[in-house]
């Protein structure tokens, strides 16, 4: 369904070039939920935006349902993007429009006539159980409700693919499960291929079928979430093992007794002097 072939994305800056995505190849089967996990700055969100070409790759191909998006002209690309819904981290709702108006906005841009876009927007809000909030403005909604409006907005174009960029990071932990449940139910009932970018292990464990681990712009490891339940699975990379370790580890030994974990050298203070025992 989605095939990324040797995708790289390099940004030019005053201090030189920066490669955010480095030669990534990834195949995502139709109807599956693909998790992409990694630390901040690993390239996760850039890779997600490469899929719908909101961030055009510097090199490589993005193939969606047999169509090479990177080879399309602007008009054809706009049409193909109607097959791709996107949920953003911070909702991106317009404060001066109601929930219904926010949902129908993309249909308005697509030239859908008013009665039809109103019907489809109301239908999308019903899918996320927010039909009664159709006339409410974002300021009148909770964080979870705002994200559900954003989900409805992504669904209103009847997409084949749903891209989710940190969909739970702006909501509280109690709301996280609710948002993920809606995404999982939509994937199951509508068969929409879903890609979820997150830095939270509990999110991918709850919703994903497969996980791609990113570090320094590259996919360094992939595994099925079902393998985690076996109890015998061990990630093959250090970053994978770290991300799958749910414990928080703090070094509570005195600063003067510690060494830099990378070099083994004694820690130094801000003045550059070596920390010594009192």
Automatic annotation (TrEMBL):
InterPro entries: AAA+_ATPase (IPR003593), ABC_transporter-like_ATP-bd (IPR003439), ABC_transporter-like_CS (IPR017871), MetN_ABC_transporter-like (IPR050086), P-loop_NTPase (IPR027417). Residues 268-278 have a biased composition (Basic and acidic residues). PROSITE patterns: ABC_TRANSPORTER_1, ABC_TRANSPORTER_2. Transmembrane segments: none annotated. SMART domains: AAA. Residues 2-241 form the ABC transporter domain. It comes from the Bacteria. Residues 254-278 are annotated as: Disordered. The keyword Metal-binding does not apply. The keyword Magnesium does not apply. Keywords: Amino-acid transport, ATP-binding, Cell membrane, Membrane, Nucleotide-binding, Translocase, Transport. This is ABC transporter domain-containing protein.
